Amino acid sequence: MKIQLENTGSHNVIRSYAPGCVTVNQDSYAGSVIVTPDRIIADWPPQTLADLTAEHIEAIAALNPEVILLGTGNRLRFPASEVTRALASAQVGFEVMDTGAACRTYNVLMGEGRRVVAALLPITKT
User: Fold this and answer.
1) Which segments of the chain have a pLDDT < 70?
2) How many CA atoms lie within 13 A of 91 on its CB side?
3) HSE-up of 112 (CA within 13 Å, CB side)?
């Protein structure tokens, strides 16, 4: 799905998402990816929610976000509480949604100037 967004300066904008692919600015990324307004981390290791560990979440929290958006693929699924437990003590906002919703929400929050991180698991073909 293509996403339209007005000029956001030099910040990273998610332009589209599809099974196995997310397009940020003019570049497409296969598999899992982390997107911040000023940084892209391609080839983020977890490819499914079952692969996600507390260490993955702690590495995202180290980016100093105001809020983390976790896109869980085709549909909304929640990670185990022990995976996200460290976020409560770090006082980092954490929202879980399907990857499409996470892409759209990232663009809105980024456009508002928020310190947002989108950690996106791939959408699979159904």
Assistant:
1) 1-9
2) 0
3) 10
pLDDT at 7: 52
C-alpha torsion 62→120→42→28, nearest 10: -150
Name the phi and psi angles at 49, rounded to 5. -60, -35
Nearest to 117 by CA among 14, 48, 26: 14
Query: In three state form, how does the secondary structure of the chain look?
Result: CECCCCCCCCCCCEEEEECCEEEECCEEEECCEEEECCEEEECCCCCCHHHCCHHHHHHHHCCCCCEEEEEECCCCCCCCHHHHHHHHHHCCEEEEECHHHHHHHHHHHHHCCCCEEEEEECCCCC
